[in-house]
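R.M. (postdoc): so does anyone remember the format we settled on? I'll just put the structure tokens first.
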């Protein structure tokens, strides 16, 4: 496999970083391993077993071989924010699985910024230079500005699959399916884990990168579960931490100073584990916190005992599955439209497999 990079034009920057840092998925309780999903949800084409793909795990068992020979075909990952840590995790799942299936090239086609117009321009470039039947498209997230582009690919018979977003069928004509996870359910599992750890007493804090539909839903899911299962725990109202780390840490410190009974916390944004680790350091307090995203700083915070656990949003596995779906379609098979993966709560003893992935990410330029 040859990895390529497409260089976009510079266009209007759209501030959507928060969306990538916060979307989340169905999670079982911290002590229960999720059931693996095997292969793409296909009605034709092969199935895989956990023993045949080296990247198979408890969340997803990807295809070990493509349903047809794809050594002369290409596959593209189209998104934005090429260098964002969360997006690089998604890209790694895409690249690793495309490599295993034997594609001629696997290309990351993304602008450096949150510039959807630039992403559309890259997609148009791909459409103008490729031949239908010789390539497939994986969209890492999706934006309404891409609707006409998706239809254009679909009308030409090019497989289009979206990762990380649950899109109602018919929203984007030409879209063949999605691989994603529920943005609320892991919050309930986080409440279960934190509530049990703190013995059902004390207070818990909730911070969000910003108040928006996705993060608000996660915050509500956490609060509702904590109140239902641990009624003696006081749940503080959500507060914004923002996206500047020093400012975010200072806000978490202020919460702790104003609330000496806080012993647990959840952050709904990807940098949140670092926020609460910093606040615990500065105040000398023990706070059992959980947040999303399996990035190296977050993994390190759990390893070092500064954060209790992480919601293992399956960004890597989603894009393995998206590649499997797109490949099955490219080979003439069919797939199920909606494909949901779990997001387990991972504690200190479960970090090792995620360090393997971030090591690969760090090795990739």
């Amino acid at each position: 496999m040859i990895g390529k990079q497409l260089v976009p034009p510079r266009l209007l920057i759209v501030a959507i970083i928060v969306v990538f840092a916060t979307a989340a998925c169905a999670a079982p309780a911290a002590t229960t391993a999720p059931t693996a999903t095997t292969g793409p949800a296909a009605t034709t084409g092969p199935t895989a077993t956990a023993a045949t793909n080296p990247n198979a795990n408890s969340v997803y068992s990807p295809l070990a071989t493509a349903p047809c020979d794809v050594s002369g075909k290409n596959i593209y990952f189209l998104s934005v924010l090429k260098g964002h840590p969360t997006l690089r995790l998604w890209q790694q799942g895409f690249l690793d699985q495309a490599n295993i299936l034997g594609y001629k090239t696997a290309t990351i086609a993304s602008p450096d910024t949150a510039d959807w117009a630039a992403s559309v321009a890259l997609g148009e470039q791909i459409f103008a230079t490729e031949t239908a039947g010789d390539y497939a498209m994986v969209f890492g997230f999706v934006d309404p500005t891409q609707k006409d582009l998706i239809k254009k690919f679909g009308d030409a018979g090019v497989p289009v699959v979206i990762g990380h977003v649950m899109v109602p069928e018919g929203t984007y004509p030409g879209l063949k399916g999605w691989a994603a996870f529920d943005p609320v359910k892991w919050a309930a599992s986080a409440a279960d884990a934190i509530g049990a750890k703190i013995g059902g007493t004390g207070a818990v804090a909730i911070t969000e990168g910003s108040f928006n539909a996705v993060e608000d839903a996660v915050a509500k899911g956490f609060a509702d579960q904590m109140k239902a299962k641990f009624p003696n725990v006081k749940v503080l109202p959500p507060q914004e931490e923002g996206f500047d780390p020093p400012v975010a840490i200072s806000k978490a410190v202020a919460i702790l100073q104003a609330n000496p009974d806080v012993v647990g916390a959840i952050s709904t944004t990807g940098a949140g584990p670092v926020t609460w680790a910093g606040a615990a350091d500065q105040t000398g307090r023990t706070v059992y916190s959980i947040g999303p995203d399996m990035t190296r700083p977050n993994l390190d915070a759990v390893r070092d005992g500064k954060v209790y656990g992480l919601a293992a949003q399956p960004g890597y596995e989603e894009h393995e599955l998206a590649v499997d779906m797109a490949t099955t379609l490219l080979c003439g098979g069919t797939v199920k439209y909606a494909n949901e993966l779990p997001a387990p709560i991972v504690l200190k003893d479960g970090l090792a497999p995620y360090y393997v992935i971030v090591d690969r990410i760090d090795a990739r330029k």
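R.M.: ...and that's the designed sequence above, right after the tokens. Also worth knowing: The first strand starts at residue 2 and ends at 5. The CA atoms of residues 10 and 118 lie 7 Å apart.
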